[in-house]
Design a protein that fits this description.
This protein is an alpha+beta fold. Helix content is 49%, strand content 13%. The protein is globular and about 40 Å long.
């Protein structure tokens, strides 16, 4: 009798969870013979995330993943961790950089170093006011996150569902935009006076500067210097 009652209570609990309007339970393993759910493999996904907000990952899961990442000693993890040691921002940047660098066939170390150079992995970093020439005329604005001037890239970024300047204020979108822009720049011809396509891509991202007719490669050297520093540690 007790076993029957226990079985019925388990089934009722599952039904209540599955019909709840605010959560969806994804059960990775259910023993159909006993109708018991292994709670260690139940993933809860919140479905009421507002537009522009990132999915919130459970704190204990984040800590576990961060510890796992730290043990791998990836050079680009070390670059990020130098600014945000072992916290949620570290993992969010790590996850996004790995995802979009791989998607667009970019060096994860190079992307990490570029973001470190541009904003120290601070999505709210304040950039200098600049005046840029766009398709519709001159605009005075500021870059967001990893040095992205939305007004210069608004048309291209719509291809990856980044439709407003506000969209760039999430870590996920900012990293995606950075990688997508680098991918576009890599597809353009190499700038005369640069030593490689990679150098040309990075300098185009920053803006080509010539001094006495010679391309200034200081920005590229700063990026590669960050990569070298953490790769050798």
């Amino acid at each position: 009798m007790r076993e029957v009652i226990r079985l019925l209570m388990g089934i009722i609990a599952i039904c209540i969870a599955l019909t709840s309007p605010s959560v969806f339970l994804e059960c990775n393993r259910v023993d159909v013979n006993t109708a018991e759910v292994d709670s260690s493999v139940v993933t809860v996904i919140i479905d009421n995330i507002k537009d522009g907000e990132e999915e919130v990952v459970a704190e204990d899961q984040d800590e576990s993943l961060i510890r796992s990442i730290e043990t791998t000693r990836d050079p680009y993890y070390d670059i990020i961790a130098a600014y945000h040691k072992g916290n949620d921002i570290t993992y969010r940047y790590y996850r996004a950089i790995e995802k979009y660098s791989n998607e667009y066939n970019l060096s994860v170390e190079m992307v990490s170093a570029l973001i470190a150079k541009e904003c120290s992995f601070d999505i709210a970093a304040t950039h200098a006011i600049v005046t840029v020439k766009t398709r519709t005329g001159k605009v005075t604005t500021r870059a967001i996150g990893a040095g992205i001037i939305y007004e210069l890239w608004d048309k291209d970024l719509k291809d990856v569902n980044i439709n407003s300047k506000k969209d760039l204020r999430s870590i996920e979108n900012n990293v995606r935009a950075t990688c997508y822009i680098l991918k576009i720049l890599r597809g353009r011809r190499r700038v005369r006076g640069t030593a490689s396509l990679e150098q040309s891509m990075i300098l185009r991202y920053y803006g080509i500067v010539r001094r006495d007719g010679v391309v200034d490669t200081t920005y590229y050297k700063d990026i590669t210097g960050i990569v070298t520093r953490y790769s050798s540690e």
